[in-house]
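tokens incoming
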């Protein structure tokens, strides 16, 4: 029996970039990962996983990118501003984490 393990490529094709969003507009944080087995993509904001299932404003796009509809930003409520990371997981291989991208919101 061979002890040589085959190397399965698993890497990011696209990682999110710092972005300046406008309050009330929509914004996309790009992410796409490549592997033979389609990776499960999740997003972290400020180190915490986003629960996108029950989120009516934020959604995961088919390629793994994060769409934020209607960026919210007020004096006391800044839920979208912060640091985002894309996390890709393939069960048999493990997890890779993208660079950290900063989302800044500009006032109108």
């Amino acid at each position: 029996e061979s002890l040589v393990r085959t190397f399965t490529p698993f890497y990011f094709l696209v990682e999110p970039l710092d972005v300046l969003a406008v309050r009330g507009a929509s914004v996309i944080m790009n992410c796409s990962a490549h592997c033979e087995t389609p990776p499960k993509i999740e997003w972290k904001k400020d180190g915490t996983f986003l629960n996108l299932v029950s989120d009516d404003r934020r959604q995961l796009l088919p390629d793994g990118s994060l769409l934020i509809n209607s960026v919210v930003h007020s004096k006391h409520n800044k839920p979208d501003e912060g640091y985002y990371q894309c996390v890709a997981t393939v069960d048999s291989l493990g997890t890779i984490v993208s660079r950290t991208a900063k989302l800044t919101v500009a006032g109108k």
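note: The chain has one domain: 8-104.
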